Automatic annotation (TrEMBL):
Keywords: Signal
UniProt superkingdom: Bacteria
Pfam families on file: SBP_bac_8
Protein name per the record: ABC transporter substrate-binding protein
Length: 439
């Protein structure tokens, strides 16, 4: 969690520091390129992403497949860690020298779109980038400022993971698919009681109001908005107080995993160290949970819902996105690579679910046959569950969202240490939003 927050700070600060004009991004004539593009088109394009060497090896293999279909398109590849990646992209953005095709995340999409750094992909759909098999819901997550500026490589959904080894040890039944928030609070107390005699003591959960995505889903469960179309908060300070205080009894009674123990375990946390049972995160982090905790026996169910409502909010969220830069001179060739990476079953066989759950039926079927990691099967099963109970789409995130998400986490740490109360939390969050979101 700390690593993610640091990366978010780097990315958000760098984006905020950009001094960019509001004019069009230039680059090649997209309409002419779309009409003239064929499988024999000659082009050289650059493609950049963040990740490790394993991801780089997989992209190398995927591009080799792409070149069997498009033999005359040369792809220059580059990658970096998340923080370094965004430092490089923001430097390039200032000079309008972004890669032709680049990995994008939801936190930065609105900012880059608002600055006209990304190509609207709509003119390329018919002849170059049909995106066969992608649903309207999947396409909607890549829209920003009225344009189709990004396409999801894969998606995930908010979830509650649980450590089967720990719960078996404590002789506690696993959480169910249809748990309510009230039932969750009772469950946390039950696990705490069973784990109290362990050395060190074992807990049910950390404070699950500590992340902004959790608040977003809580609002969606109530049928309420999160951000307005013009990027302003659709919630009040009192809404934030109500959410944070919804577990104030557990917090006051010391029933959450202690914040000091979490800090001492950094860069892991108590769940990944096997010291508490429940973890709230997006579904494609299941592999991280298995790897870092040292056990494949990690279960996954939807996060609890409101009392008396037998429906979850299971809106899909883009795990990773791809965008074509507005400054690209080879937009059609870049879009062809984008289309191939998103829809090809061969690419899905290479990556499994490591980029998120593939969006097309054929790609998901290909990923299911491989089971490259122990997380693939449960992630795909969870994806099928979410699709059978699909609810309204995850909200578009405004420019400056990354800064707000980081601020939420920082304020929650102060709350957990007793340095501020829930009203101070809400006030300081809105103070930050007045700057970051221009309210």
């Amino acid at each position: 969690m700390i690593r993610k927050r640091l990366a978010a700070v780097v990315a958000a600060a760098s984006v905020a520091a950009l001094v960019l004009s509001g004019c069009s991004g230039g680059g090649g004539d997209v309409n002419a390129q779309a009409k003239q593009f064929t499988k024999n088109t000659k082009a050289e394009i650059s493609f950049a992403w963040w990740g490790n060497n394993d991801r780089a090896d997989k992209f190398k293999e995927a591009i080799s497949l792409f070149n069997k279909k498009y033999p005359n398109i040369k792809v220059t590849r580059s990658f970096a860690s998340f923080g370094d990646y965004w430092t490089a992209r923001n430097t390039e953005a200032a000079g309008r020298t972004l890669p032709d095709l680049m990995m994008m995340d939801a936190n930065n999409l609105s900012e880059y779109s608002r600055k006209h750094l990304l190509q609207d992909l709509s003119p390329l759909r018919k002849n170059v980038m049909p995106l066969d098999g992608l649903s309207d819901s999947a396409l909607s997550v890549g829209k920003a400022n009225g344009e189709l500026d990004s396409i999801p490589l894969g998606t995930n959904a908010w979830s509650m993971m649980y450590n089967k080894d720990l719960l078996d040890k404590l002789k506690i039944a696993y959480p169910t698919d249809h748990m309510t928030w009230s039932e969750l609070k009772s469950y946390v107390r039950k696990v705490d009681q069973a784990g109290a005699s362990a050395k060190p003591s074992e807990y049910g959960s950390s404070d699950f109001t500590g992340s902004l995505p959790g608040f977003i889903y809580w609002r969606m469960q109530q049928g309420k908005g999160v951000f307005t179309k013009d990027g302003k908060p659709a919630f009040t300070q009192q809404d934030v107080v109500d959410y944070v205080d919804s577990v104030k009894d557990l917090r006051a009674d010391g029933k959450f995993f202690p914040i000091k123990r979490n800090a001492a375990l950094s860069p892991k946390d108590g769940f990944l160290a096997g010291q508490y049972a429940l973890w709230f995160n997006f579904s494609t982090t299941l592999l991280q949970a298995m790897t870092d905790s040292g056990t494949n026996r990690i279960g996954i169910v939807p996060a609890p819902g409101p009392d008396g409502v037998d429906q979850h909010v299971l809106a899909t969220h883009p795990s990773l996105l791809l965008s074509v830069s507005a400054n690209s001179q080879q937009k059609a060739a870049a879009a062809a690579l984008l289309n191939f990476l998103v829809t090809s079953p061969g690419v899905a066989k290479i990556f499994g679910t490591s980029l998120g759950v593939p969006e097309t039926r054929q790609a998901r079927a290909a990923a299911a046959k491989v089971n490259a990691t122990p997380a693939d099967a449960p992630i795909l099963q969870y994806a099928r569950y979410t699709q059978s109970q699909q609810t309204p789409a995850y909200p578009s995130l405004p420019a400056g969202y990354g800064t707000i998400e980081t601020k939420w986490g920082d304020l929650h740490q102060q709350l957990s240490y007793g340095k501020i109360d829930s009203r101070q939390f809400a006030q300081q969050l809105f103070d930050e939003m007045s700057v970051s979101l221009g309210n």
